[in-house]
């Protein structure tokens, strides 16, 4: 059976390994295994920074991950709805290739990969707290399918153009807003970049390479 993906280059959800935010000591190890640079907000952001999660294939190769900025995650639903944060998604540039178990192939990563990860990340971090828990999964499935479609149509009417500094250089991004927050995606520095947030305007942001990813682990 052939296994493919048009977003992240991962073989399947089951084959993905993650290291979560605020979680286990040692979560930074997944970030340290990456063969590409991690990006975050630049030095103009003075607030908290934290690790979120990395995504890796069945062979352990790290393909993408996210870093958080602003208000950290909370299990308190009232706090969750009022959070001000920005998450930055870094996706390795990968060509089309065979899967680790040699049963199929993985499509090349692209800006759409970053857009999809950012869009689904926004949903996971901002779902409506007032929705009944029995309907929550249905809502998430519907919105995730929409995020997938939008990531496949970056030149469509849902997206606008936004130029932001990356390592001090003006860089074009695809940008969209929704009632839950905003999403953007582009490419820079040999990787694909995505970001999403709520309560923090995207228009004043800048991105840069993270010189010491372990600083996000504290």
Tell me what the structure shows:
The chain contains 4 helices and 11 strands, in the order αβββαβββααβββββ. With 218 residues, it is α+β, with helices and mostly antiparallel strands. It has one domain. The strands form 3 sheets. The protein has a 7-stranded antiparallel β-sheet. It has a two-stranded antiparallel ribbon with strand order 1-11. The termini are far apart. The N terminus is likely disordered.
User: Could you give the order of the helices and strands?
Assistant: HEEEHEEEHHEEEEE
Domain module tally: 1
Total helical elements? 4
End-to-end C-alpha gap: 43 Å
Overall pLDDT, averaged?
83
Q: List the uncertain runs.
A: 1-25
Question: Looking across the biggest beta sheet, what order are the strands in?
Answer: 2-3-4-10-9-8-7
- How much helical structure, as a percent, in the residues? 10-25%
